[in-house]
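**Fold tokens**
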Amino acid sequence: MNDFTKKYSKIWKDDPKKLLKSYDYQLELTKQLDNLSIDKFDRKIFYEIILWKLNRYPQIDNTLIEKLKPLSSLKPKEHYKSKQLLKELLSCRGIRLPMASTILRFINPNVFQIIDDRVFRVLELEGKIPTKPKNINNNYLEKSCEIYFHYLDRLRDICNEKLPFEDSDRILYLLDIKLENKIGD
């Protein structure tokens, strides 16, 4: 045993690896990445490593991913039909309302737009985007859906030919920057 190992022997006795028993950081992804074969290394794995480090890796099962696909056929103003799936998305680890809205927006930009603090401010909406609690509850899920659907309704109200709904999140985001507003103001 070297001096460093001895220094912390009160914690780990004679085996520093004992500490690994309490390691619980993104267990599933950590195991997958620890067992990575370099011939499988590609852009997807690269992004998984980045998300692992940032602790932003969402945990969503393939069943929910499949359930999201039919949302692409919703028509404008039918966003309320997505409520149950939005709740399921929000219940996933690593997915809060801005991320859930981003997923929905890329599935169907004619119905969904990304909720963002900057756009929220430009729309002069009351309240704020809910913070995800450690223990997800129905109150958080309901409030998130209510705020997001109100946000989409408000966007729909102000949109027109010159301000198309499918581009509104991006245009209003840039408007807030041009207004020289800062994040958190």
